[in-house]
Records
---
Amino acid sequence: MNINATEVVKLPETVDTTKGTLYLPPRTLHYGLYSVTVIYNVSRTNEDGVLVWETITGESGVNVGKSDLVVVAVKGGAPRIRRGRPTLQTLNLNPGHFYFDPDYPEIPLVSFTWQCREEGEELPSEGEKVTSDPPTSREEYGTGQGREGGGCWGQGPGMMSNASPNFSISVNLFRTPYITYKIEVATRSKDGRTSGTGVEVEVVEGDPPTLTSACSPPWICRQVEGAQLVNPQKLILESGCVVEAGEEAVGEDGCGKVPLNVAGVAGSLIQPLDVMDVAIGLNQRKLALLDDFWVKFGSQFRTFDVQVTATRPGETSEGLALQRIRINEAPVGGTCTAEVMQDIHKDEEEEGSFEVEVRVGREEPPTLIVTALTDTVILNCTDWEDPEGFEIPKYSFFATTERGEKVTLTFSSKVILPYANLTLWAGVSDQLGAETLYMTAVVIPLLPSQELFKEYQTRKTLLKAVSARDQTRVDMLLRNNKANDEEEEDESSATQEKNKDMLSSVDKFSITSMDEVLQVNNILGSIADPLPKESQEGAVAALKTLAVAADSTAPLAQQKDFAAGALATTASLLTGVNKNVKKGNGTSEKRAEKMVAMARRRLRRSIWNQTEAEEEEEVEEEYLPSEEDEDANKKVESLLGVVGSAQGSLLASAVVGEEPARVEAGGKVNMAVGFFDAGELDGRVVGVGGATYVFPSYCSIVSEPDDCLTNKSITVGIQMAKWSNQVHGYGGGRESLGDDSSTVQLSLVDAASHPLPVHNATRDFIIHIPRDEGSSVEPEVVEPRVSNTMPLSIHKVEVPLPNLGVSVLVSPSNQSDASQWVLAWSSSELNGSLEHTENLLYFNELNYHPDTGFYELFLDSETIGEATGTYSIGIGHYNMTEAVQEEHPCFEDPPPGTFIYSFATGFNESYSFSSFVSSCLFFNKETLSWSSEGCRVVGANTTITTCACNHLTSFGSGFFVAPNAIDFSYVFANAGFLDNLTIYLTLIISLALYFIGLVYARIKDRRDVEKVGVIPLADNEPSDQYLYVLIVHTGHIPKSKVQFLIAGDWEESDVRTLNEAKTSRPLLTRGSVDHYLMATSRPLGPLHYLRIWHDNGGKGRSSSWFLGYMVVRDIQTGEQFQFICNQWLAVEEGDGLIDRLVAVAGEEQLRDLSHVFTHSVDKSMADDHLWFSVFLRPPRSRFTRVQRLSSCMALLYLSMLVNAMFYQKVPEDGAGGGLRLGPVSISPQALGIGFISNLIVFPPSFAIVFFFRKSRPRKVKESRLQIALRKQRESAVVVEVSQAVWPSSPDVESEGSGNFSYSLDPKSTTLNSTVSLKELIAQQEKDKDKNKVGRRRKLSLPWWFVLVAWFLCAVSIGTAVFFLWAYGIQFGNAKVTKWLTALLSSIVSSVLFTQPVKIYLGDETTN
């Protein structure tokens, strides 16, 4: 309630009044004093043991005051700039554009007062008004026009006449160069608030570039008089160059390189500072003053000048933009305390009655003895002030654990604590976020007694805290439960249900500040695992909501805290998602059978001595993702989107050359982000969480020539993450990963944080991935067994997949004799002979590790290739025997000193042996499977696997998405009917229904022919020659005789009967529109009313009749009159009348929305809705039902084809880019697919319908109205359906059957002339031809375009059916069933909902 106005203020619907914290967004309330009332509904047990509800209210006052205006003159708020003369440079000051009103930003400032002076001059006193306006040209100087004084324009310092929001002037008009001028402006808002700003302009000779300087992002600074107020923490200043009209751009930024210089300001003394070791980016567009800068210089200076300078090529004058920054001091002078509140009675805390027992120790720091779960701690802060004079907006409380973990507490005064050694802190923050941390106590925890703990459980404290929206207490209780359960992992159904119930309350907690977001994220992380499968999607959605609520303008430390918390929660959710999908997939018999079949195929391919028939290549099935895979992938991609947004927020605070910002989340995941110069990327090593990336050159990454960076400066951002467990623990090839395999991720972005897709780089990324501690195999001690035929000790190594790496480690027991040891390996089995020992190596040719004493053989991915199966490793010993000189008569003896090498058949020395395989896989998000494509293993040991990959991920944010490919060799080889029953039945049934529908449509078309035409009324007199067409819109079939009469200005008709005409078709049927021809002896003149009735002669409801409206058209004059009824003529319906008098509809009635809209919708549904019109088609339309049905089928099949082409091609959450409209996000892939889909479906379907509608008939048929006229006057001249011209005269009378006489004078009662009807018709034809010249003819096409439409229709249906058949076989029965289910729901909703709503809205908009 507004106390000043004594009125109740209704809060907007967007304000949530049901949570524990009431958050009013900026500008919710106007200025004034308000009373805020809170109402609690509390349940408690009364003295009789009955549960009752009580209502408790509380009230507080809120004063909404006025905010300060923020006004700057130039972009970025630089207080000092430099401009040149006598060039064409212009000084533009725009406070009317660069101001900010926090209270009413939509209302412009109303007053601007400008003044100008030289630096060092004083402005006139307030009572002395001096006007100093700039000259129109430099010729005014020195001409005795009063411009010999000081100031900017030679008239002394003073006020200018300019009162506009902006000030623009040629720099050449300033009186003297090499002088600094100060231009100031005072502003005022509509509600009386004032503010001002000024800028110092150095005027020099020459053409310096126009530079800008600003804080990045803008909200880290606050504009105060003459400076930017900043917190003493990492600060980024971004410079730029403005290319004014007529200036020439230099380089990519307009000014080439932009160096920055930093100087400290102490009073009036400017002292240059050496910031090389405490700043980054001195020669870049972004300069970062690091935390060490403030440590080094903050005690000496409170204000600093940071200036950017640049020079154009060939120029000597430097451009300048100076940014003055002033240190914002944190709040001072106050104290904070922590006390323990003890309950008197167990329910009195709810009732608000308690005693306070102070247990704060006297030693520093103070100690606080707290009983976990039961004691309530009171936190309080007093007497704090902001040195800058602003109000203190925020007090926060938190605790730190022994491990350094930060635990957010509350903004209120009461908290409970878990059983843990904690240090309690208070944070007092000013409006810019400068925070003073105050240690309030060191907590010594006590375990509650058994009685207290039972009481705690009985009171259901956690449930009450949830009900009371006390999120701090919930957080503390969950932390305590988590700490007690750390030693054992509880995945019982009871725990899952408890977490599920808690999850349902998460959305009720307040997340209006960053502290609350951190707190609720911790609650979510505490219950994220275990969760039932059906609740995981809700947890993912809750985390996404927190990511959206996270304040991107919060201090960097808080953003890092949220990133760490979000990563930890994501890791917990990923664990639960992957565990559930493994359980689901593990019970699938088809999956198990498929894995066995794949193993058999690998085994057959690994044996070299197969017969030719056995070596015939089998076609390996493409992995078909299960429903569990797809469900898990949807959740994982949403979670990775949260990680991406956290990375993007941190990246916004990074600068080129700075070490990447790193975040660790409890050992589960590590993240690093940073910017690098593209020219320095080659060979750069970046690590995170033990994983290391070695980058190739930027040019090789983007597949461009090596000199692609010549004369260019490009910034590249990296986003890295290393997960201790699997991220995608599902999909094809999942069996090749260990359950505890770690996952590393890397993505590149440009300077604006837009993703850079990396595919097929010309040089590889080298990735060092840490191996799991438990993955290495302990060496075994081997006592060799050899024989004369096989002198090697054989070991077997299974290689299950292509492109793996194999590591073999051997350590002889006698290292001194290792030079005579050998190792042989083969990709087949060594069974009793050395036949396949094609690779023989001495130990001194292997890699030796002196720290372990092992010799290593490593076979990389290129060596292994596609050869999978069992590899054999043989270890042996070579004997070296000197050749004996035998002096054989037939053979020449070897030279002396020749040695003969042979395998030692008596080899028996022990050795240690171990082997393992390594893989480098990435998750292909298109196929939901693990793949090694583009990656290879280039090194491995017991701790590290080294991979070389030419891409970062298998996907990128492309606009166009390639459709599902068709392997026709597979399709034709697997086209069996029973194996693909679903697609065959779908096509057969749909085509059969189409042909049945054609028969129905043809029958209805023939009946429609009978419905068209104009029916002469049965009681027309052959001698009557004045003709009217009656168009009757009815809604019920009457058996009664319907009669009417029509009255006009000049005459009224006789009583006429509607439904006695001689015709074979039924008249006045439900929803019909019947045309009648009425003849009268003379014109009736302008019509006034219609009287219509029936004799109620039918039986039952057949006696009743509903009349919509009747249109009466004068054939001779073309005039049209409408009689709108929309009522029953029935004794048992409505008002019971069967005789109605209906006045002619006036302009207002004709425009009545209900009438026009109903008529328009009925017509649109019957004619424009392609599917409905097959059944409701207007009989007079040339677009037949057969043509409409064929058009529908062509559209249906084309839509099915497009849907199949892009089925499962769009991820749920795009990696980046695209459109975001509030909560709705549209990925680039979806945009591309939508464009291509419309390109395929729209042109042919539109052409088919257009050609059918617009094709003229081959033979022009005689007008049905002429036929009716001929029946009416068999011997008379046929009157065309035209707009004949008849005089508006009452003096018209009949004179025989062939002539009409009429008076040209409406006042005359005598006949002035007589005209033959034939002559009149001839004259009408001439007038009609004249009207056609000025009237736009409707578009029509030659008759043969209907054949073109039929051809397009047949081609569309035939082509679509063929490719649908191919896609159906390619997909397989299971996938086709899912595709058809999704497609059917889409089609049904489009036909029954989307199209009608579109027609409804279109008609309503038109009307």
---
Amino acid sequence: MSMPRPPNEPSLATWDCMLPGPPSKNNCGSADLSSAGLLAYAAGSSVAILDTHSMQLVSTIPLPPQASSTVSPFITAVRWSPLPLPHYLMESENTSSHLLLAVGDRHGRISLLDFRSKAPVLSFDTNNPNSSKLGIQDLCWIQARPDSWSLAAISGPSFLSIYNTATGRCFFKYDSSPEYFSCLGRDPFDSRHFCALGLKGFLLSVRLLGDDSENDVALKELQIRTDASELQRLERDSSSGSNSGAPASAIFPNYVAKFAFSPHWKHVILVGFPREVLLFDLQYESVLFAAGLPRGCSKILEVLPDVNMEVFYCAHLDGKLSTWRRKEGDQVHIMCSMDELMPSIGTTVPSPSVLAVAISQSDYMLQDIRKLCLGTDSFDTDFDNPFDFFDESPIISKTHLISISDDGKVWKWLLTAERLRDAQKDIENVKKASEVRELPVQEVESRSEGFPGDLGVLKSVTQPDDTNSRENRQSGPTTSLEEVSFKVTLDGQLHLLSSAVTMLAVPSPSLTATLARGGNSPAIAVPLVALGTQNGTIDVIDISANAVAASFSVHSSMVRGLRWLGNSRLVSFSYTQGTEKTGGYVNRLVVTSLRSGLNRTFRVLQKPERAPIRALRASSSGRYLLILFRDAPVEVWAMTKTPIMLRSLALPFTVLEWTLPTVPRPAQSKPSRTSSFLSKEDVPLIGSSSPTTTSSTDAKEGADGSHEDFAESFAFALVNGALGVFEVHGRRIRDFRPKWPSSSFVTSDGLITAMAYRLPHVVIGDRTGNIRWWDVTTGQSSSFNTHRDGIRRIKFSPVVPGDRSRGRIAVLFYDNTFSVFDLDSPDPLANSLLQPQFPGTLVVELDWLPLRTSKDDPLVLCIAGADSSFRLVELNVNDQKMGVLGPQVRPTKERFRPVPLPSPVLLPTPHALALRMILQLGVKPAWFDVFSATMNDWNTPGTPSAGDLRGYMIASPRVGDSVVPEMLLKVLEPYRKAGCLLDDERVRLYAKVVKKGSTLRLAFAAGIFGESMEALFWLQLPHALNHLMNKLVNKSTQRGPHTARTPEIDEASMLSRISSKGKSAPGSGKKNLLVNGQLKLMAFEQQELWERANERINWHEKLEGEEAIQNRIHELVSVGNLEAAVSLLLSTSPESSYFYVNALRAVVLSSAVSSSLHELAVKVVAANMVRNDRSMSGTHLLCAVGRYQEACSQLQDAGCWTDAATLAATHLKGSDYARVLHRWAEHVLHTEHNIWRALILYVAAGGLQEALAALRQAQLPDTAAMFILVCREIHAEFLSRLDSDEDATLLKNKVVNLPGLNPENEDVVAVGEYYGQNFEGTFGSMWLAEELQVKVEA
């Protein structure tokens, strides 16, 4: 897929730290969990990206606004790109296409966001002539060609559009009105196919044949019957409102319809309406199962199928999760458990709502690999690891589920399936009985634990049934779902911002501030920011980790004021109105200790007060607090261990601000207090003779025993425009006499609304946009007009010795925009950073981060956005004109993480490829140890020296130059030391995998990068190769005079199968419905295909209608049950339009004994039927006369590929069956674009050379080389298991080389040469020197 590169220009701003606000219902529950374990969900107008393995916030990407708008709309749809990690590097192409996000918003925009640049790389053409704001409801990626993907989108209530992701052009539109579209879903069996579901049961099946025009889209309209009476009532109620462009989730937020494709059965989807669950068969266009929710059960929010088992989960609007298991023998599901996704302990009242739920799609792959590793170093098993369990354990399957609540929490749940005790005892008895058999214990263990040796024939003469042995080995003892219990446990949680941010506070302790635990040690500046929220909690943000360090539930209502007392205490307030009888306000003041987590209230009154608290102002030392009331005197408090009120100041204050910490300078002189108070002729003076200011308390020891030998001052403004400065010394308050300004200092007519004070400067702003500042020691002053709205906040920037300017201020206006001015410059307005709007959101609060230690450090602004997000913005102050620092101006510091981020998919693409190659070739587990460098000193045998890293590679066949692995290990060394490659769980699994051969290593490497289909391919490759080798051996033994018959499906068993009655079939009985769900995607063996086809027949027996009967006949003929097919054909009513065709088929099928004349007549009739587009009927006639090869060809021509394979599995053998598989592989590769399924079919059909050519054509050189390596390894192991007699020696000579993979083959030689040259040149010249140097320096 070709994607435009992101722009090279730096963005307007870079965020070293950004925390998203909590998601809401306006985000429509948009979330997507990638196969690599990355969760992306919408929070306001931003997308939060989490690593679900370590439950850490990786990044937050804000969506920029439109050019004509100032605020970004809510994001309503998020979908990860399905593109895998590229397997080759090209300098001219963007190599981050596997980390693209498709994002849709409430205004109808669709963009592709790049994770690396955090910016849109493509905006789709979504202009609608009817309405400009059709909100996006859902998105879905569809594969149009092998190298390109398209994007389907639901916009508005009923529009479906499909876009070309290379150009952004819309090439298909569909209007379903008056139906409301609800969601989209892609078929896991065919990436060209997807469905769109409506709230009233309308189902649109879409198959994409290209991405050029409407002619490339095939549609099929279906209808699922459901009760829509509630929806009709909601439609009548909402008809009065204007919801023309709103999506269905916005019009009906509590009426949801969801569906998901079954990962186990093709053409089957799971549908969840608000109060009903259904299974719908797309092929039969019928409902297989329907059940209403029990009484008391809330409406359905999401439907989630389990990949490991035939179980699905329903998330409900009330935060509960129901588990539905399948009843054995039929497609009927029963609710077996109900669990809570929102714990009642520790949550607020009312309980938060669950907005979105996602189930992991990667856990099953690691479980399959772990089961194949059983028996290897069992003493290494970690019982605390949720995925480390024995086959004898009652635990059958474990899956992770992620839920997102509207209080900013992301929950990680572990869904566990366990055997019941009685079933466990039966399994143990079966195992004990199996140990008493005549087979040696070693042979049993090799069959059940070895890999890949257990996948093939142990001996050429005494071969067990390969299919049954493989199924028993992978599945273990058969367990029905009735014998299983399901549990849900909390496995992790990530706490982000809990509510809309109302207040922001930054600690800026002065040198006189002391630690909270007492003593005279000065308090230091800490990288913490406190946020007050609307729900009454206080979230403390750790800037260095970009995470919520602590959250305190302090108030029951909105936090209206928040200030730091030093660096370890917080003071906050809220108020509520009294009752109608009492009236007034109940003010609540709380001091919160960050160390102990205790909340202490003070100033507790018995009755409501007349005036509410307006604001809090805390001094830099944290010792004094000013409490401002609305129309009431200001109170001055000493914030000792037990707060004490010092004074009450009855003046009409408008603003009050304490002085900030001064710039540390040597021998700084104190300001003069002899000058009179600042005033103009028309400004009233407030002298020391005022009775309010003269009275003061005596200087003595404070309540905490410390001597108060210092003073702090605060500036204020009155309603009439008068200014003043008071000083608090101990418990005394006195007038600070500044020097009067010059006569040019003119008072504004506007009310003073904001002030900032840092000795010796006072800066004030008014409601008309004027800014005035004055030096209280020299009397110098100046002013200018910002030509903006009223000023709400003024904040002095922190300064350090050597700063060029000490007068930089950040100004927040009443229109929620901000600017930064330099008051030391001649023209502050010309040299300011004018930021009329922050990209995508308005600013609610701002302050500077006081962590600068050098004049070269940037200025950092803390911003609380109107979208409830928290961000940091760096400003470049080294240039002559201030500007926002771009990402290419200064390298961003690496964020501190308490826990490493072990997500390989997030590594730079060259480094991710390096790790992938190292895991494929095999590295010793000791290399992952962070302390392995110190372990070298122990002289452990086999441990490489400090300079040579090649000793960490295991002894395995090499591909390419041996120097390449050492180069890759050196490149990955910084990540290894930081522990950022793999987490402990996956390292322990790899320690077992590395000992089990190449196939498991390759499957593991694909699995951790989220490439599940490739991992399945490697797991199925040994089965397919052994299938091919069995076929070659059987073909050779049939020519020998004294060879035993191999257990192929022979003619006698085929005849008995044809004459079988009813539903009985070999291998039927109790099925294991619990494991190997995804491995069925790549089924190719005859027995497996035939059994699955027989199982599908039982589902459709109760379906009615002519089309259903025709499909049933087709299924019966495919599995060879001709008697049941004839019976069904003869039951056709004479009035039916199918009567004559069915009668003809019944006569011919019943005459299984054919003659040459009869065969000729049937061939003519079949040819006529095919000419009349009756391919299925002609197929059945050909089957009646034994022309199965031609019948399979006709089915394949008609597009019935699975049916053709089923028919071939029933009737064909040898090269005839291989030809069917080979043509099927061609279709899967070139039409369905699924290279991994095609490779398995190629290998099973003997087309190893075609498989190798497909890998080369797909530009996968490393995979092609690994393919040859694994095939030779499996081939050699197969030959080693043959007997040593003469016949076996003859067989070895005949199959000494794999067909198509001879060492002398030109393609094989070319692959090996290209592999070595490509990766040695790529990693050596492209990034080995540059990337390693940059990473080490960072």
